[in-house]
Amino acid sequence: MHLWLRGEGIMLPAVNYAREAERTIVWKLPVYNTVHHILTNPIYGGAYAFGRTCSKVTIEAGRKRILRGIRRDRADWEVLLIDHHESYLSWHDFERNQRLITDNATSKGEPRRLYRRPFGLSYAAMAGASSLA
Q1: Residue 86 three-state SS
Q2: How would DSSP label each residue in 7-72?
Q3: Alpha-carbon distance 40 to 97, whole Å?
Q4: Angle between helices 91-106 and 32-40 (to 10 degrees)
Q5: φ and ψ at 115, to 5 degrees?
Q6: H or E segment at 95?
Q7: φ, ψ at 113 (rounded to 5°)
Q8: 117: three-class secondary structure by DSSP
Q9: CA–CA separation, 51 vs 30, rounded Å?
Q10: Which of 58, 76, 91, 120 could bond 72 through an S-S bridge, CB–CB 3.0 to 4.6 Å?
Q11: Bridging pattern class, strands 48-50 and 24-28
Q12: Quick one: CA dihedral 101, 120, 51, 57, positive or negative?
């Protein structure tokens, strides 16, 4: 997906941190992590999720250390509302894609393709880019 978006020249919005207090939105070709975050976010499958990550407090050298952003298993999420809003693909297809993404990350050989190319994402990216012109 990442290579397809880049090959088609489809730009996605990104935050540009020019100065500490100043943030602007810029359109640029996506990097792998951006596409991965989009494809693995439950919003993409029409669900609302809360509590996907947590914090853990430890004591190191007599000082408190907080580790933030620790991913939880789906069963441990605080809230998951499936079919919460209109989605780019069905929840069933979203879950199938999650399994394929996980398998592709841990297997050797030719990566398998996602179930459906997310044309909604591509169209939204193109529509957003053209509205800025």
Answers
A1: coil
A2: HHT--EEEEE-SSSS--EEEEEPPPHHHHHHHHH-GGGGT-EEE-SEEEEEEEETTEEEEEEEEEP
A3: 8
A4: 140
A5: -55, -45
A6: helix 91-106
A7: -80, 150
A8: coil
A9: 26
A10: 76
A11: unpaired
A12: positive
pTM of the model: 0.64
* Nearest by Cα to 130 from 2, 6, 9, 3: 9
Cβ pair 112, 100 in contact under 8 A: yes
Indicate the length of the chain as a whole number: 133
In the DSSP assignment, the letter for residue 82 is: T
> How many Cβ atoms sit within 10 Å of the Cβ of residue 45?
23
What is the C-alpha separation between 92 and 114, in angstroms, rounded?
13
**Strand pairing class (63-71; 53-60):** antiparallel
Write the Ramachandran bin of 56: left for phi over 0, alpha for psi from -120 to 50, otherwise beta. Answer: beta
pLDDT string in tens for the chain (133-residue length): 788 888 889 998 888 887 777 888 889 998 888 888 888 889 888 899 999 999 999 998 999 999 998 989 888 889 989 889 888 888 898 889 888 888 877 765 555 555 555 545 544 444 444 444 3
Q: State the amino acid at position 72 in one-letter form.
A: R
- Stretch (H or E) spanning 123: helix 119-132
